[in-house]
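User: I'm writing a short methods note and want a consistent example. For 1-phosphofructokinase, I'll paste the sequence; you return only the structure tokens, no commentary, since I'll be parsing the reply automatically.
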Amino acid sequence: MILTVTANPSTDRTIELPGTLERGGVHRAVRVIDQPGGKGVNVSRVVQAAGASTLAVLPARADDPYPASLTAVSLPHLAVAVDAPVRTNITIAEADGTTTKINEAGAALGEAAAAELRSVILARAETADWLSLCGSLPPGLPDTWYADLVRDLGDRRCRVAVDTSGAPLSAVATTDVDLLKPNAHELAEIAGGDGDAMEAAAAQGDPSSVADVARIVADRTGGSVLTTLGGSGALLTTPEGTWFATAPAVTVRSTVGAGDASLAGYLIAHLRLASAADLLRSAVAHGSAAASLPGTTPPTPDVLDEDGVTVTRLS
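Assistant:
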């Protein structure tokens, strides 16, 4: 079972435009989609679509529309009670696939709610194969919250994956975490380098600079690092080696949630005891399929193109 935690959930509103966004202009939307979001929820929805067992843990009021939206898509979830409503994040999707995001900070998590959330996570982790800690932290939680959870989970059997950014990522990168899922810029935040340059080089078929920095992080944590590179593919760095995968060609509709789908693809394949190359293949296939769908729609197995993913082991 894959347990996900979304400490700062959101309703994801995607506004699709017929052309290019013009600052200061007036636009008529082609379509507006509201979906339950937040990185952990996105991961759980992809896992569920693959037919695997999952539970999404998050803070939300019982009478908030957000838990009802999870029930509407039949996603197993457990909501810890809080006082404030779940935030709304807005994505503006242009016709060429360019996306602009406007995210609310989220409601502050009080001391009692934070303690209950932590208690629920530790209890549910006892029966999970993977725990995935995902997304930003809401106001009220310290930057070390994920890192502290990883340390608390050190003697439990479940593996732990973390997908976050900024100070929480820097903190968790000092722990013995099983899997980190940064992008090139987040990787540069925690181990140096130029994210733009690394991403550009990978787009030209040279992932060596990304591989060098990812190796530093993997050696530091003792675990694996899945570095997503958008349309250029992804890199998997493990204690045993490094693999690079290029992505299949897709028509991009929304990149929001594509990284979450990549993480889900890795976790799904890991449950099936896949090799490192196939873990990466599954991650890239899921991320690419998600980018071809509107909003944060989870890809289903029938839209995956694993044969279009080329995986190479780097020396």
